[in-house]
Amino acid sequence: MERIITEGIDLTTRKIVRDIIKIVRSGEVGSWELPSDLDGDDYYDKEVKVYFDWNKNWKEEGQKYFVDGNYDDETETIQVVLFVNNDYYPELLYDLIADLNDIIAHEYEHHYQNIELRPENEYSTTDYEDQPKDYTYYLQSHEIPALIRGLRRVMKLRKISFEDALNQWYTRTFDEKDMSKNDFEKLKDSLKKEYEKRHGKK
Asked: Which of 46, 56, 59, 180 could staple 84 via S-S, CB 3.0–4.6 A?
């Protein structure tokens, strides 16, 4: 069963990332409802829509892009926002594709939790306002499988180990003020144990 779910999430993640990259390559900035704005279908697998907003006039010293995503359990939609520094295009695509695979697979895992295709102990029971603000946010029962799911996509994409995927995620996502290296090492130790518990040593 888990293999079927993994394959389903992987296939749909690839399709969504491909659709987003197609839009980025077209240069048509703005707001998109996917997949309907591209191919007329109402939903991706398991009735998910993706709202994608982006522009390419973003400038932040030394940064190629900013990308973030979240899952809205009320509307059962994944939302992705992207700001691109066009000075770094197209070289930024290598890292952006990894980030998008990570984000989409992560948020898709939350969708599976929301539609009760995951064990009950992986459902979020904490209001957003009450969730931790430090690195322990990623050690919540619903965040661990989502984070691992996203990193496994990057592992497959880049053919790297879980630890390497974790290190690259930290480098792409955080700086010292967002999460200190010391906190990241504590998070990494915990996540490696969780990964090994679920998937064995790699």
From this structure: 56
User: Number of folded domains in the chain?
Assistant: 1
Are the C-beta atoms of 155 and 162 separated by less than 8 Å?
yes
The helix or strand, by DSSP H or E, that contains position 13, with its residue range, turns out to be: helix 2-26
Answer yes or no: are the C-beta atoms of 98 and 168 closer than 8 Å: yes
Q: Could you tell me which of 69, 68, 70, 62 has the C-alpha nearest to residue 92?
A: 62
pLDDT tens digits along 152-173:
999 999 999 999 999 999 998 8
Decide: pTM greater than 0.90: yes
Residue 29 and residue 54 in contact, taking contact as beta carbons nearer than 8 Å = yes
Residue with structure tokens 């070289």? 91
- The 10s digit of each residue's pLDDT in 55-95 is 999 999 889 999 999 999 999 999 999 999 999 999 999 99
Please give the residue range of the domain that contains residue 145.
Answer: 2-199
SS3 15: helix
What are residue 49's DSSP bridge partners? 77
Close Cβ partners of 109 (under 8 Å, ≥ 6 residues apart): 9, 118, 145, 146, 149, 150
User: What's the one-letter identity of residue 178?
Assistant: D
Cis ω for the linkage preceding 35 (within 30 of 0): yes
